[in-house]
Every structure is written in structure tokens, then in C-alpha cells.
Specification:
Largest sheet: none
Number of strands: 0
Keywords: Membrane, Transmembrane, Transmembrane helix
Shape: elongated
Radius of gyration: 24 Å
Distance between the termini: 36 Å
Helix content: over 70%
Length: 200
């Protein structure tokens, strides 16, 4: 009987696992870098704050004979919400890569047993997100939505666009709730995948 030694084959399998783990890790790092360097939302909030002064300076309401301020705010709101939902799509892909990384971490840690897991980047993230990240993200988004909803609504009320202000506030609240529900759905998927990974 000619039996090939399992040592070299196991070494090749381990190397393949590690290479794929590194590739997935680099993909996740790229998504994180892209998200943190995305200045679209900052630019959009700046546009919301600057829209009314610019419209007044250019006298757009008089020139166009249209309610430029509320229309501009509503347009900016739609653009901002599109960017937010687009970021959720990227976050979904990021979570998928994390889920695959956890599988590789489980197999790699089984090859390197110890008091603490050697590979735990993806496995440790959900707990860190609950304890630290969410406590920073929630106030940040709270301020973001306060500016996005409160500032234009108040300004339109003060300028006499009460119907527009009501429409804008309701539209912004509906879109914000849709964004929140979608984000919570992604969080639940992340938690469920983590539990499934731990049970296997």
C-alpha cells in the first residue's frame, strides 16, 4: 500500500486557509477604509447648513419665483438618504466578508490552540460593536439626524413655509426610520451569524 504522508498536505491546507483569511481581511480593511474616507455625508450636511444663506445671497427665490429653500432642502434630503442606504449596501458586503472570516478563524484557531484565540479579528467584532462602537455611533447619528431634520424644518417654519416644513419633516422621519430598520436588520443578521458560528 502506498500511502502519502498527511503532513505536507495538511501544511498546504493550512497555508491555503491562511491565504484566504488574509485576502478576506484585506477586503474588510478596504471596506472600512472606504467607509471612513467617504466624505459625501459630511459634504451633504454642509450643503444643508449652507443652502439657505446661499439661496438668499443669490436671491434665487425672487429670480425663479419658486420656493427654492424648501425644494433645495428636500432635494438634499433625498441625496443624503440615498448615500446612507448605499453605505448600508457596502456594510452588508462587509458583514458577509466578516462571516466568512469567522469560519476561517475557527479552523485556523483549531490548528493553533491556546488560552486565547490567535485569529479573532472578525469573531471579536460583534462584542466590540455592542460595548464600544454602538455607544459612539448612536450619538453621532443622533446629532446627524437632528441637523438633517431639525434645522431645515425650523428654518422653513420661520420663513413661512409651514406646509413644506411639515412635508419635509414627515418625509425625513419616514426615511430615517427606514434606514434605522435596515441597519437593525443588518445588526441582527450579524448577531445571528455569530451565534451560528459559535454553535458549529
Amino acid at each position: 500500500m502506498n500511502e502519502h504522508p498527511s503532513g505536507p498536505q495538511e501544511g498546504e491546507n493550512t497555508e491555503l486557509l491562511y491565504k484566504e483569511y488574509v485576502r478576506l481581511s484585506e477586503c474588510c480593511n478596504a471596506y472600512v477604509k472606504d467607509a471612513l474616507s467617504d466624505i459625501k455625508l459630511l459634504g451633504a450636511i454642509g450643503a444643508v447648513l449652507a443652502w439657505d444663506p446661499v439661496a438668499r445671497m443669490l436671491e434665487l427665490n425672487v429670480r425663479l419665483d419658486e420656493p427654492v429653500t424648501p425644494v433645495g432642502f428636500t432635494t438634499l434630503l433625498l441625496v443624503i438618504m440615498f448615500v446612507l442606504f448605499y453605505n448600508l449596501l457596502k456594510q452588508s458586503i462587509f458583514f458577509f466578508h466578516q462571516a466568512r472570516m469567522r469560519r476561517f478563524e475557527t479552523r485556523l484557531n483549531a490548528l493553533h490552540p491556546g488560552r486565547e484565540p490567535v485569529f479573532a479579528l472578525a469573531s471579536a467584532w460583534p462584542d466590540w460593536q455592542r460595548r464600544v462602537h454602538d455607544r459612539v455611533a448612536l450619538p453621532t447619528f443622533g446629532i446627524f439626524y437632528m441637523v438633517l431634520i431639525g434645522f431645515p424644518t425650523t428654518l422653513m417654519v420661520l420663513q413661512g413655509f409651514r406646509a413644506w416644513a411639515l412635508f419635509y419633516a414627515l418625509l425625513a422621519l419616514v426615511l430615517a426610520l427606514c434606514h434605522l430598520v435596515s441597519a437593525l436588520f443588518l445588526m441582527r443578521c450579524l448577531e445571528r451569524d455569530m451565534r451560528e458560528a459559535q454553535s458549529t
